[in-house]
Amino acid sequence: MKLEEIMTRKLEAITSDASVYEAIERMVDKRIRSLLVRASHPAELDGVVTARDVVFKVLAKGLNPMKVRVGDIACRPLRCVPKDETVENVAALMAQANVARVFVCDEGTVVGLVALMDIMQAALIDRARNPHA
Amino acid sequence: MLKKFMRGDRKEEAALTAMHEHLDLLCAAGQTLTELLSAGGKDLVDKIFDLEREGDTARRRVLSIIFEGAFLPYLRPNLCRFVELVDEAFDTVEDTARYFDLIALHPTIAEECRRIASFNQQMCEILILAFELAVRGEDIREQVLAIRILEKRVDDLKGDIYQKIHEVPVADFWQGKFYADFLHSLTAFSDLIEDASDALYVLTVSFR
User: Fold this and answer.
1) Which residue range(s) make up the domain with A59?
2) Which InterPro entries has this protein been placed in (chain B) (predicted)?
3) In the list A31, A47, B72, B198, which could disulfide-bond A74, CB 3.0-4.6 Å?
4) Residues B119-177 pLDDT 10s
């Protein structure tokens, strides 16, 4: 399967100046585990904040999520892959980098997101289509 | 596995061949619909109508063979149910083509509609594969799961479409109704294929 077929195109983003509490609200409301973090000023890069970041860097440390800036816990830079990359290579990259998601980029613009669940589903569909492979 | 429970006469072979033909026609219709949503063209609409009629002929042939006494009696209701579900899916493809011909697919939702048609086509191909494996006595659990995954993807796209549908301008009530009917039939296909794969799986499980 092509990456374009399995990637999530509807991306939820949050500005880096927003509070972690707002990020939690957004993730819970949309039932997602990560948000694209848009830089608030030119010196900053875009990043990603995940539920793992929220729990390990804020909640587990007893910090007040309303007082922590999303930009301060986001992971940067974004891990991007081209949209014509193979699913197998993306899976290998994720394994090597120990990340649960990568962004799909086209000419410098983020166009989608591929997560572990997407890779698993693509593998299952591929197995179903080639039963004796 | 299905062949194991046949009584060895040609009626059952003929029924299975007709069922495979029915599925082949459905796949061809699905592929034509994918092309139609990308390229348009009255000839493709007509082709789908023709395929649906051929599908009806194949369905009648299967059912008449079954009613003539093919297969053990306890298998017949489930086999008929499978065939009827495939036929209902065929009807949704025909309806989708008909309504597409009556609307102008708005760019706001065009990409999602094309992706749904592509997923529908993939589901159909996997269903044929599942049928072939079931006839040979092999496990079809992976195929059923793959169909379920694709059906969930169609549901997600359906949700995206209905969030954006308000941006699509409609001139009058009837255009709005045709749009709604188009989207309904386009998205109903995946539900029916999922039901058909479940019916096929129940058939294979009941043989164990």
Assistant:
1) 3-129
2) DUF47, PhoU-like_sf, Put_Phosphate_transp_reg
3) A47
4) 999 999 999 999 999 998 899 999 999 999 999 999 999 999 999 999 999 999 999 99
C-alpha of B165 from chain center: 25
pLDDT tens readout for residues A57-78: 999 999 999 999 999 999 988 8
Number of domains composing chain A: 1
CA distance B75 to chain A (A): 25
A119 chain-B contacts, CB cut-off 8 A? none
Please tell me the distance in Å from B175's CA to the nearest CA on chain A: 28
Candidates 1.20.58.220, 1.20.1250.20, 3.30.420.40, 1.10.10.60; correct CATH number of B1-207? 1.20.58.220
B149, A10: Cβ pair inside 8 Å?
Answer: no
For residue B20, what are its two tokens? 């495979």
pTM (2 d.p.): 0.86
Nearest CA in chain A to B146: A125
| pLDDT, mean of residues A66-95 | 93
Q: Are B150 and A125 a contacting pair at CB < 8 A?
A: yes
For helices B10-39 and B107-135, give the axis angle rounded to 10 degrees.
160
Q: Does A121 touch chain B (CB under 8 A)?
A: yes
Give the residue from A12, A9, A14, A6 showing the smallest Cα distance to A119.
Answer: A6
Listed by start position, the domains of chain B span 1-207
Nearest chain A residue (CA) to B139: A131
One-letter amino acid of A130: N
Burial class (CB in 10 A: 0-12, 13-18, 19+), B24: middle
For the stretch B92-127, pLDDT in tens is 999 999 999 999 899 999 999 999 999 999 999 999
Q: From CA A101, how far away is CA A29, in angstroms rounded?
A: 20
Between residues 22 and 81 of chain B, which touch chain A (CB distance below 8 Å)? Answer: none
Note whether B145 contacts A131, CB cutoff 8 Å. no
CATH value at residue A94 = 3.10.580.10
Within 10 A of A116 (CB to CB), how many other CB atoms are there? 14
Residues of B in contact with A125 (CB under 8 A): 122, 126, 146, 149-150
